[in-house]
Amino acid sequence: MDKRKEDRKMSTKCKEILEELAIPCNYIEGHEPVLNYEAAARVDEQYHLTGKESKCLMMKTKSGQFVLFVTYEGVRMDRKYMKNLLGEKTSVCSGEELMEVSGYAVGCASPFAYPDTMKYIVDNRIFGFEKYICSAGTPTESFEMETHYLKDIYEKLGCDVTYIDDYPEEV
After folding, report:
1. pTM for the predicted model, two decimal places
2. How many other C-beta atoms are found inside a 10 Å radius of the C-beta of residue 42?
3. What torsion do the CA atoms of 116, 121, 122, 124 make, to the nearest 10 degrees?
């Protein structure tokens, strides 16, 4: 499969879910590739996006469970916190594991649209932001939605979600 077809397949999962659940959002296709927060800032400015940039970090526990940590730009993963929360050591997934499990490119993980076996750890601080800017799985597609809709998406999809209130401010 060529790269453009593969990218289209990855982003389609997010777009289909947003449309199927009638989640109002600003879905943007074909923008500058976003692989870092500097490029994200340029896209945000170009398309007048005002939300907080998402950060979605896929991890794997020692026993092989995949876990997605959903937070926002600038937050670092606290391995000790995650070990205490999950009861076992975790490591950040490799780019190959991310692609194999989700179909998402490195730096482009979405906060949803993963296999049913995925466990989600959601930093409740994101709900303090009115809007949330997310990647749709490829470097050239993003969407901005009101942050509260994320809970609706998880509920409607039947996701295994743990909402956390006590994540450390600085790691």
Report:
1. 0.91
2. 13
3. 140
